[in-house]
Write a structure and sequence with these properties.
It contains 2 helices and no strands. It has 67 residues and is mostly helical. It is elongated, with a radius of gyration of 26 Å.
Length: 67
């Protein structure tokens, strides 16, 4: 037979459950607005730039005083 906590222990557990439900509901609302899918690799992480030039090209164009 399962024993349910009584008194303050029970209210502490229910407030933890309420907080968890609140966090889950908030997460669902945020995901519905912003989405929850993030790309594995962003353009900042890759060597490809929006200009079509490679990282090697940009490094070759560096002025001598940057060496």
């Amino acid at each position: 037979m399962a024993h349910e906590p009584a008194g303050p222990e029970k209210s502490a557990m229910s407030s933890d459950d309420d907080a968890a439900q609140h966090r889950a509901a908030r997460r669902r609302r945020l995901d519905s607005v912003f989405g929850d899918d993030l790309p594995e690799l962003t353009s900042d992480d890759s060597d490809q730039h929006h200009t079509g030039r490679s990282k090697d090209w940009f490094e070759a164009q560096r002025p001598p005083h940057y060496e």
